[in-house]
Target: Aminotransferase
Amino acid sequence: MKLSHRITHITGGGSDGWDVFYKARRMVADGVPVTELTIGEHDIRTSPAILEAMHTAATGGHTGYAMVPGTHDLRKTVAARIAARTGVPTTADNILITPGGQAALFAAHMAVCDPGDMAVYIDPYYATYPGTIRGAGAVPKAIITSPDTAFQPTSPALAEATKGATSLLVNTPNNPTGVVYSQDTLQAIADTCDAHDLWLISDEVYDTQVWEGRHISPRSLPGMAERTLVVGSMSKSHAMTGSRVGWICGPADTIAQIINLATHTTYGVPGFIQDAANFALHQGDAVEEDVAAPFRRRRALTMQALAGQNVVRAVPAQGAMYVMLDLRATWMSGEAFANALLDAEHIAVMPGESFGKAAAGHVRVAMTIADNQYVDAIGRLIAFASARAA
Model:
């Protein structure tokens, strides 16, 4: 029997660049100790207080069908959070609660792209972006950025790549690079969207993890609220990765249409999980700062470890739970380096090539293990790279 072209071509064919990750997991399964610095999974778990709120909601009976758009309380809380942080008036009607940020990314592209439409994204990119676009029936097109511009897209590149496009997907703070887009970059993005009449899909799941500068939501720029869909999530801000609760924020009439899509796909998020998310958001900024603190600390430890040598260089690590390391001085690809490091040192990192073409010769390090283990792993990585460069 034949399967649909949509489902068989989601990954675009060939390797998805995650071979090193799977290899490391096989080693672990075989009993080989591996220091894993691959995926963005917190080394702390969801707060016991949040889990208690989830338990109370579940045992209290909130286990039936929840409202598909999300509970009114959670939608209202998310809207108030966004309004307070961006200055853009936002109500519950601007919010759809989704099963995590990934479902929000898919729904956003389904909402604005017809089959065959061109949907643009920035390279390096989070691994699911091209497949999400293909799954929605659109045609992905990457804007290749450069280490020389800290992987921020330039106005000429934006203008050229978006001719004939329907949507533009951006991510700041950025996974995988850790870069926070500047005011100038965001204005160039806004100007491009205006000039080419594009929908902007803004992935802001790392908005609570900013180490330098400040996060600016492009929805807050003049004229952008009516053409921007913001993707948010509880996963990174509150260490609730497995709870699968996120949202889309956008124009009320657009959100109403995406709710119709959710009715025919996900049919909402469990009510007891939404109650826990609502509880978590009401705990205030201090909880989010506590979740982010280990990554802020390890980012500083990374910079200390890199000082005094010039073989391994860091891309400006301004936000998120990763640091992108430039290893081009070793004359190795990111994939070759990651494989060699795993074989020799049993340290697993993600090749830059896993996230597109722009980060070739780089690796992404997830700062997701205890400080002492992390410092040891970074030191060994630097020593390994220095030996290869020599």
Remarks:
- The first strand starts at residue 35 and ends at 37.
